[in-house]
Amino acid sequence: MDIKKIMVVGAGQMGSGIAQVAAQAGFETVLHDLNLDIVNKGLETIKKSLAKFVEKGKITEAEKNEILGRIKPSDSLKNAADCDLVIEAVVEKMEVKAKIFAELDQIAPPHAILATNTSSLPITEIAATTKRPERVIGMHFMNPVPLMKLVEIIRGLQTSDEVYQVIEELSRKMDKVPVECKDVPGFVSNRVLQVMINEAIWCLYEGVASVEGIDTIMKLGMNHPMGPLALADLIGLDTVLAILEVLYNGYGDPKYRPCPLLRQYVKAGWLGRKTGRGFYNYS
Ligand code: NAI
């Protein structure tokens, strides 16, 4: 199967990054969100990221413009009608994703693969909202997408071998390293990572150390490139909470219980970098 045209649904931090790497790999790309204002914000993020690549001498100004020229904005899912692959990257809520997959199933051509960038939700359940569960797969990119090498690939119960192979090959074309993982809550990446992030938030909640203290201990002590609280701010605290809820409900194990401080920050609208305030202040 030959993939030529890709639609990315959701133009937030992940969707814009995925659209960028798709266009960089030479694919015709459609970037979709609820309205064009949001899509244009996503396109601005892509422009800034590509400008940095130009500054670093990794691409030329002409290549930057060619890449941008391959990305078309969209505020209608009907634009999936001539796409070979759709990668969904909207908010981490099953009801929102389920509705989008059911709609995409009606619009996208029968051969099209429907992929989700979900951090933790069951691929099998998302696939069950369509009449093509064998063509639904998890394609979990890391943040920031243009810089991070990993793509965790998750097969649902019914995902076909052909679809898996197409997505594995596509990940390599996007200059990523694909790793296969089973369809369990949080897969491998977030099952491990979010426990650490949640524990760091519990440390803060209990007054064990300051925000900076906790992050410095983990950075210098474990040789991590950034501390868990800074990483939570980068991921988005709403997304961190959503993933912890999936882990907590999915395994029924209290070790995943989200810290009340995280819930409070999300209720306050302190979602991290994207809102200018999280554990750190970005304004
Ligand atoms: P975000 O909050 O930056 O973007 C979400 C986007 O979805 C927003 O632009 C919103 O307008 C759009 N959206 C919401 N409902 C929609 C609908 N019905 N139709 C079209 N667009 C809609 O979130 P982010 O961080 O980009 O996360 C997106 C997905 O990627 C989530 O499933 C998340 O779990 C996953 N993910 C997030 C990572 C992170 O570090 N933030 C890393 C890997 C995966």
TrEMBL record:
<feature type="binding site">
    <location>
        <position position="274"/>
    </location>
    <ligand>
        <name>NAD(+)</name>
    </ligand>
</feature>
<comment type="similarity">
    <text>Belongs to the 3-hydroxyacyl-CoA dehydrogenase family.</text>
</comment>
<feature type="site" description="Important for catalytic activity">
    <location>
        <position position="140"/>
    </location>
</feature>
<dbReference type="InterPro" id="IPR006108">
    <property type="entry name" value="3HC_DH_C"/>
</dbReference>
<dbReference type="Pfam" id="PF02737">
    <property type="entry name" value="3HCDH_N"/>
</dbReference>
<dbReference type="GO" id="GO:0016616">
    <property type="term" value="F:oxidoreductase activity, acting on the CH-OH group of donors, NAD or NADP as acceptor"/>
</dbReference>
<feature type="domain" description="3-hydroxyacyl-CoA dehydrogenase NAD binding">
    <location>
        <begin position="5"/>
        <end position="184"/>
    </location>
</feature>
<feature type="binding site">
    <location>
        <position position="143"/>
    </location>
    <ligand>
        <name>NAD(+)</name>
    </ligand>
</feature>
<feature type="binding site">
    <location>
        <position position="119"/>
    </location>
    <ligand>
        <name>NAD(+)</name>
    </ligand>
</feature>
<dbReference type="InterPro" id="IPR008927">
    <property type="entry name" value="6-PGluconate_DH-like_C_sf"/>
</dbReference>
<feature type="binding site">
    <location>
        <position position="119"/>
    </location>
    <ligand>
        <name>CoA</name>
    </ligand>
</feature>
<dbReference type="InterPro" id="IPR036291">
    <property type="entry name" value="NAD(P)-bd_dom_sf"/>
</dbReference>
<dbReference type="InterPro" id="IPR022694">
    <property type="entry name" value="3-OHacyl-CoA_DH"/>
</dbReference>
<feature type="domain" description="3-hydroxyacyl-CoA dehydrogenase C-terminal">
    <location>
        <begin position="186"/>
        <end position="282"/>
    </location>
</feature>
<dbReference type="InterPro" id="IPR006176">
    <property type="entry name" value="3-OHacyl-CoA_DH_NAD-bd"/>
</dbReference>
<feature type="binding site">
    <location>
        <position position="33"/>
    </location>
    <ligand>
        <name>NAD(+)</name>
    </ligand>
</feature>
<feature type="binding site">
    <location>
        <position position="97"/>
    </location>
    <ligand>
        <name>NAD(+)</name>
    </ligand>
</feature>
<keyword id="KW-0560">Oxidoreductase</keyword>
<dbReference type="GO" id="GO:0006631">
    <property type="term" value="P:fatty acid metabolic process"/>
</dbReference>
<dbReference type="GO" id="GO:0070403">
    <property type="term" value="F:NAD+ binding"/>
</dbReference>
<dbReference type="Pfam" id="PF00725">
    <property type="entry name" value="3HCDH"/>
</dbReference>
<feature type="binding site">
    <location>
        <position position="56"/>
    </location>
    <ligand>
        <name>CoA</name>
    </ligand>
</feature>
<dbReference type="InterPro" id="IPR013328">
    <property type="entry name" value="6PGD_dom2"/>
</dbReference>
<feature type="binding site">
    <location>
        <position position="92"/>
    </location>
    <ligand>
        <name>NAD(+)</name>
    </ligand>
</feature>
<comment type="pathway">
    <text>Lipid metabolism; butanoate metabolism.</text>
</comment>
<protein>
    <recommendedName>
        <fullName>3-hydroxybutyryl-CoA dehydrogenase</fullName>
    </recommendedName>
</protein>
<feature type="binding site">
    <location>
        <position position="49"/>
    </location>
    <ligand>
        <name>CoA</name>
    </ligand>
</feature>
<feature type="binding site">
    <location>
        <begin position="10"/>
        <end position="15"/>
    </location>
    <ligand>
        <name>NAD(+)</name>
    </ligand>
</feature>
<keyword id="KW-0520">NAD</keyword>
